[in-house]
Amino acid sequence: MTDSPSQWHRVANRSDIADPGCRGFQIETDSMPVFGFVVLRDGQLHGYENVCPHAGRMLNWGPHRFLTKDDSMIMCAAHGAVFDIGSGECAAGPCMGESLRTIPVREVDGGIEADVSGVNIF
Ligand code: FES
User: Fold this and answer.
1) What is the CATH number of the domain that holds 38?
2) Is residue 80 part of a domain?
3) Atom of ligand 1 nearest to the CA of 59
4) Which three-class secondary structure state does DSSP give residue 16?
5) How big, in percent rounded to 5, are the helix, strand and coil portions of the chain?
6) What's the pTM value of the predicted model, to 2 decimals?
7) Nearest CA to ligand 1 atom 3
8) How does DSSP assign 65-110, residue by residue?
9) Is 111 a pocket residue for ligand 1 (Cβ < 6 Å)?
10) I want to staple 8 with a disulfide (CB 3.0 to 4.6 A). Which of 31, 34, 35, 113 is the partner?
11) Does some domain include residue 44?
């Protein structure tokens, strides 16, 4: 099996995201759209698919709203599962022991890019 070639897409301007803060995105691929989000905290970027491991629902409360009120955790709007920003592991809620699926992200020339080549599309 060979790895898919990288598919980097610009998903935001760096200046669009506070620290801490987050930004949702949608990337059109050949087969179907990929929904994801990026979180910036302490200068570090973290990217995840916008899919909750509990019931497969989108996590966000509204446009670009993925975090708890104090911006310390990612929180699912459906049933309140909370996830560590750095690891994506569920820390409380109905999917304890599971994790968000990561999407590689990077900062390039004032923009934020995401690589969706590893996203499994069924
Ligand atoms: S779908 Fe996220 S906690 Fe249930």
Assistant:
1) 2.102.10.10
2) yes
3) 2
4) helix
5) 0, 40, 55
6) 0.93
7) 79
8) B-B-TTSSSEE-TTT--EE-TTT-BEEESTTTT-BPPB--EEEETT
9) no
10) 113
11) yes
Identity of the residue numbered 61: W
Q: Which residues in the chain land under pLDDT 50?
A: 1-2
| Residue 26 in domain | yes
Which residue has its alpha carbon closest to ligand 1 atom 1? 55
Collapsed DSSP state (helix, strand, coil) of residue 52: coil
Give the pLDDT score at 32: 85
Ligand 1 pocket check for 104: Cβ under 6 Å: no
Question: Which atom belonging to ligand 1 lies closest to the Cα atom of 94?
Answer: 3
- Residue 74: the pLDDT is 98
Q: Using CA atoms, how far apart are residues 59 and 17, in angstroms rounded to an integer? A: 18
Mean pLDDT score of the chain: 93
Q: Domain limits at 42?
A: 8-115
CB count in 10 Å sphere of residue 41: 17
User: How many structural domains comprise the chain?
Assistant: 1
